[in-house]
Write a structure and sequence with these properties.
Strand content: under 5%
Order of helices and strands: HHHHHHHHHHHHHH
Number of domains: 1
Number of helices: 14
Structural class: mainly alpha
Largest sheet: none
Amino acid sequence: MVVLLAASSALFFGALAVTIRFALARGIDAEAASLITTVIACVICAALALVTGDFSHVAWGDTWPFFVTGLFAPGISQILFTRAVGVIGPSRTAIIVGISPVLSAAIAVTVLGEPLHVALVLGTLLVVAGGTLLVRERGGPAALLSLGIVLGLSAAVLFSVRDNLVRWAARGTDVPGFVAATASLVSATFVIAIVVASRPDAVGRVRRAAGPFVPSGLVYGISYACLYSAFDRGRVTIVAPLVATESLFAVLISIVLLRKSERIGPRLLLAAALVVGGGALISSFR
């Protein structure tokens, strides 16, 4: 069950990047898109928690780390991720975000005092090599590529902080996975709504995003529910390597659906393989 949940989370997160690219083609701004995506995902996770009865036996005092985590991931990180997809496409964004296991491991070593393994060093080298291939990629405006990389890296940093906070919280609480995911998405919705409201014509922009981003919200909700449920049921060393394959799923889905616009070649495939392999190597020896 743990393997299935982790693999499903990776698959649907990879699909998320592609659905975002399709919807952004209609000229919808990233903030409104992120709000619709997060609201629908929150509803899905809450519905799952209700169906399973998880809300009835949860100690709400233990949920605060998940509410706090949601403020920046998926709160701010979802806006950054959506913007990155709009700038450089789903496959490249997913590969950049795939470096988060390296950042997560670095935080764990320096802050949580986890041991430094040879696998961490080797995995880091693989991820850096994959990232270097992506940065040195030719084709398209260099300024846009640089902007997309910065946005993707920023999202990756927030994802890595989220991972460590969730792992820390999971060690001392018995909050079910669906409830934890719902808590994070509730606070994320709050943050994104503030950002959307700070700009003109907030209601109109949200209405325009409502239809096109329903698919994104559905796959995002399933991905988040699977992710938190996997961490709730299994060890990080089992879950994290499987979730790291999200980059490869995004590239494969893009090959099928976005073959022309994504310009997917051998360099991009190799970059995805290096990042996924490095992330899996790091996570496997955490």
